[in-house]
Specification:
Low-confidence stretches: none
Shape: flat
Number of helices: 2
Mean pLDDT: 79
Distance between the termini: 66 Å
Largest sheet: none
Strand content: under 5%
Oligomer: single chain
Structural class: mainly alpha
């Protein structure tokens, strides 16, 4: 009974790292497999539409630039969080005479 103190009645032991990683691999693999299946068999035919070389280069550059910006911003978020820059979000201000414990009015 003493070991049950402080634990919720239906608490489960945490999953192991190996089990979590295997679940993640299965989910990501399933998503990629579904995407490949969709693109190969279920995507509608584009007909006579042709993308020129300039369009292909523009699309590749757009994807690469978007990935660079996304990865860079997420890196900055994690760096800021790890270094503690996000901890102090309170604005510190000087106490005004109304907020102080004594009056600073002239003649008192």
């Amino acid at each position: 009974m003493a070991s049950q103190i402080g634990k919720p009645p239906d608490s489960k032991p945490p999953m192991s790292a190996m089990k979590t990683a295997s679940i993640l691999v299965v989910v990501i693999g399933g998503a990629i497999g579904g995407l490949v299946l969709f693109l190969m068999y279920l995507a509608p035919d584009t007909g006579d539409t042709v993308v020129s070389g300039h369009g292909t280069v523009a699309m590749v550059l757009g994807v690469v630039f978007s990935l660079i910006v996304g990865i860079g911003l997420m890196t900055l978020v994690f760096y800021s969080s790890r270094r503690g820059f996000d901890d102090d979000a309170v604005v510190h201000r000087r106490a005004t005479p109304r907020e102080g414990s004594h009056s600073t009015a002239p003649g008192e």
